[in-house]
Amino acid sequence: MNETHASSPRAEPFSASQATASGVDFAELQLTANGVFWNEYRPTDASCRIWHWQEGQAQCLTPSGFSVRSRVYEYGGGAFCLSNDMLLFVNEADQQLYRQPLAGGAPVALTQGDCRYGDLHYHAGQVLAVEECASEHRLVAIDIETGRRNLLAAGADFYAAPTLSPDGQRLAWIEWDRPHQPWTSTRLMLAERLTNGSWGDPRCLAGEGQEESLQQPRFDHHNRLYCLSDRQGFWQPWAESDSGLRPLPCAAADHAPAPWQLGGCTWMPLGGDAWLASWSEEGFGRLGLRNDDGSLQDFTGSYSRFRSLALDQRYLYCIAASPVSPSAVIAIERKTQQVHVLAGGIAPLPAERISRPQTLRYPSGGGQAHGFFYPAMNGVNRPPLVVFIHGGPTSACYPMLDPRIQFWTQRGFAVADLNYRGSSGYGRAYRQALHLRWGEVDVEDACAVVAYLDEQGLVDPQQAFIRGGSAGGYTTLCALAFAKVFCAGASLYGVSDPIALARATHKFEGDYLDWLIGDPQQDRERYHARTPLLHAGNISVPVVFFQGELDAVVVPEQTRDMLKALQDQGIAAEAHYYPDERHGFRKASNQAHALEQEWRFYQKVLQAQR
Q1: Residue 445 placed within a domain
Q2: CB neighbourhood size of 404 (10 A)
Q3: How many domains does the chain have?
Q4: Residue 468 is part of a domain; what is its CATH number?
């Protein structure tokens, strides 16, 4: 690692190691007659393991040497499913499908070769899955005893969410073709089983001939099909009807995030117009159950984000988080709404020391931008500010306890965590506002929040920093190159040359840059105008970089070129390279090192201002 050492800081009550070691996360909760199962990620060893909870006891099922994670479309998701007596999962190292008896025993490979698997769903002795072989994708069914593979669907560029009706007679899925992304335009497909047991020709139920994003198809116990569609401006539940799809009564709000990963579950139909769902209001998550009589039971409680929903007669289950508690697997009693924490949920700080998110709605670009403001915890009037820019860029930040944000507020920094235009959670129009304007509207929103918080008397605008990872790193570098608002910035595996990124990126994002900026050939001037590397001479403030040497998305050469361009003009720029990291740091020790070094870097900038 190439480091520039500052003088040793005084001891702090909440260290970078504490902030990163507490970052346990959960995914893909599933409920069966055998109990509750989930995938648990621990940054201390960068592994993903399946846990089983039953009768008050939690047990890890994944043996040493295995990690449960899919890499389909690079972002994965849907890495395991369950039969009555078997766990079926994707092993991270070889991306093959394995079976493992729930009663005990070693995992056995069901597949072999160069294909990868994800979005697993079990039905009647088979695993339905998205199969990725090189740049080809299809839906397959794999027999859990023999490993025999049957082709279900092929021909589209991408597939997601293969789902069978309870009677096994109807197969639904989502598909889309380039140049679209799953949050711009997809199709809901349905095939019906023939009398000979094969599948009939699929038909498109929605998404043909118009741009709408459909996701999370579901069948109810009557084999009726439902899905989420944004055709009315938000991802909302719709039901199959004789005339197509009809909307279900619900809030005018997004009931799902952008589907970067496979296997998401933020809603489920319960028959008729009844449903269980989570949705977003001003960025804060809500959880509710709509009954057949039209009444709505609110199970939100003190939580602000909900994922991986499930329910039985007694409990609602989900992965939830709140402004004062990190992600946890919880069960909520349906009658009393009492919350039981099955795993996680231990805050690294006492509640009174935690900075709480405040809703940000501020003017920018003739409209409004969104985010969350976290006050500094030292009581200083007009403290320095750190503006967080999330990656994606079609993604979102959430008002939940993030120890990395608390790391800054504990040290006297205020934090603005932005859902700039283009983020999900605020409807299709807000999400689409980034179309052809990446590097403009996001930068405008990042700069506007500093002016807004200055007007409110909440921060010192002369001590405003900006930081972001991946796409957030691109926004950071653009803000430093094309505006004079920030006194320094940090780019974590950030894009400095979008044209170079377009040449190296994978199929899932193969046309994403065309949507964000334009065609690299036809819109060369636009690319030139928004490429930080070509405008490094405009940057006049210090910059720190953090880069994984194994990164195949933003290759290390991008960061090295940007660093050299700044250093050649005398800018105080430094970089830290991590030989064992890819795109996004997974190891707790590396996360802690990067956080500590970023803070030291900012301290030097602040000292130079005095």
Answers
A1: yes
A2: 17
A3: 1
A4: 3.40.50.1820
Residue 600 falls inside a structural domain: yes
Q: Label residue 50 exposed, middle or buried (CB < 10 Å: 0-12, 13-18, 19+).
A: buried
pLDDT along the chain (610 residues), means of 10: 38 79 87 97 86 94 96 96 96 97 95 96 96 95 96 97 97 97 98 95 94 97 97 98 94 97 98 97 97 95 98 97 96 97 89 96 96 95 97 96 96 98 98 97 98 98 97 97 98 92 82 94 94 96 97 89 96 97 90 97 95
| pTM for the model | 0.94
CA-CA distance, 271 to 291, in Å (whole number)?
9
Residues 6+ apart with CB under 8 A from 43: 20, 21, 23, 24, 586, 587, 588, 591
Cα–Cα distance between 64 and 107 in angstroms, integer? Answer: 11
Going by C-alpha positions, the residue among 62, 106, 123, 19 that lies closest to residue 408 is: 19
Supply the range of the domain harboring residue 525: 349-609
Are 515 and 526 in contact by the 8 Å Cβ rule? The answer is no
Burial code (b: 16+ CB inside 10 Å, e: under 16) for 552-576 equals ebbbbebbbbbbebbeeeebbbbbb
Question: Using CA atoms, how far apart are residues 221 and 48, in angstroms rounded to an integer?
Answer: 32
Q: Per-residue pLDDT tens for 134-165?
A: 889 999 999 999 999 999 999 999 999 999 99
CA–CA distance, 379 with 366 (Å, rounded to integer): 33
| Rounded Cα–Cα distance for residues 277 and 407 (Å) | 32
Q: Which helix (H) or strand (E) holds 606?
A: helix 588-609
Gap between the Cα atoms of 502 and 208, Å rounded = 28
Residue 456, classed as helix, strand or coil, is coil
> What is the DSSP code string of 317-362?
EEEEEETTEEEEEEEEETTT--EEEEEE---SS-GGGSPPPEEEEE
Question: For residue 327, what are the contacts with CB-CB under 8 A and spacing of at least 6?
Answer: 24, 25, 26, 319, 320, 321, 344, 345, 400
> What is the structure's pLDDT at 21?
78
**Cα separation, 498 vs 527, whole angstroms:** 7
Torsion of CA 9, 14, 18, 24, to 10 degrees: -140
Look at residue 412 in the predicted model and tell me its pLDDT.
Answer: 96
Q: How far apart are CA 350 and CA 402, in angstroms?
A: 14
Radius of gyration of the chain (CA): 24
